[in-house]
Design goal:
Layout: H1 17-21, E1 29-31, H2 38-46, E2 51-54, E3 65-68, H3 70-83, E4 89-92, H4 99-114, E5 124-125, H5 131-141, E6 151-154, H6 157-169, E7 179-181, H7 188-191, E8 198-200, H8 203-222, E9 231-234, E10 237-239
Parallel strand pairs: 1-2, 2-3, 3-9, 4-5, 4-6, 6-7
Antiparallel strand pairs: 8-10
Helix pairs in contact: 3-4, 5-6
């Protein structure tokens, strides 16, 4: 029974929120942001409208959110590679300061520790950038054979495109020479050659939970009930495709 509106706002401080949001009579908001700092939270709270974060958990903001369980997903991927005999496992990050991507990077370190593996800095790319820039950076980096592990976990499926191109440019085969796993479960995975093994995020389930939780917050506000900050995490599913092979050594 609600009308749904999508607004694109470029505003890190939250200064424009009241001006833009105030024109509409919103009863609730779902916020999809890279990060939410204390100033942004204050601006959102000042609107006096219940709101939730989508796949963004910022401890300092103390805001409710529905997110991907990045630690579960990354651990599942590393454990899967471990089970296929891989011990030289690396991670590729764009370096973008998004909450979810930074959490995935930390989760890789935890997963390696939990499986008794040492994280090798030479195998981990911290700031590859995006798109063509990332491809060129990785091509140059992987000219050094010492930097190439037997398996790579990539922060998301889009970044995996640059990884594929960079590996192939250096004469490396996927998965015969290097196995690759992405994250998100985007349609592009089946279009890559070979098809990309990935961690699928159940977006429809996340959407239903977001709306359900927001409706509950709206109802609680109308009753003047105590507002409790919660974080709901959605587990990922490892989708096996053709980009992972058993380790040779």
């Amino acid at each position: 029974g609600y009308r749904f509106t999508i607004l694109h706002i470029y505003d890190e401080s939250g200064a424009k929120l009241k001006e833009i949001i105030g024109k509409e009579q919103f009863v609730g908001m779902l916020i999809y942001a890279a990060q939410v700092n204390s100033r942004m939270k204050e601006a959102l709270d000042a609107l006096e409208v219940p709101w939730l974060l989508i796949d963004c958990f910022c401890p300092d903001a103390e805001a409710s959110a529905v997110t991907v369980n990045n630690r579960q997903g990354i651990y599942a991927a590393v454990k899967y590679l471990y089970g296929r005999g891989h011990r030289k496992i690396g991670y590729v990050s764009s370096g973008r300061p998004l909450c979810s991507l930074m959490e995935r990077r930390r989760s890789f370190r935890y997963a390696m520790e939990e499986l008794g593996l040492a994280e090798e800095p030479l195998f981990c790319v911290e700031e590859a950038g995006c798109g063509q820039k990332a491809q060129e950076y990785l091509e140059e980096l992987w000219k050094d054979a010492e930097r190439i592990p037997t398996a790579l976990l990539v922060e998301n499926d889009v970044m995996a495109v640059a990884v594929y191109r960079a590996l192939k440019s250096n004469g490396l085969r996927i998965p015969e020479d290097v196995s690759v796993i992405g994250f998100d479960g985007r349609s592009i995975c089946s279009m890559l050659e070979p098809a990309l093994t990935t961690l699928r995020v159940p977006r429809r389930v996340m959407g239903r939970l977001l709306v359900t939780l927001l409706l509950q917050k709206i109802e609680l506000q109308s009753r003047s009930a105590e507002d409790v900050t919660v974080r709901l995490e959605i587990n990922t599913e490892l989708v096996e495709m053709e980009s992972v092979a058993d380790a040779k050594e």
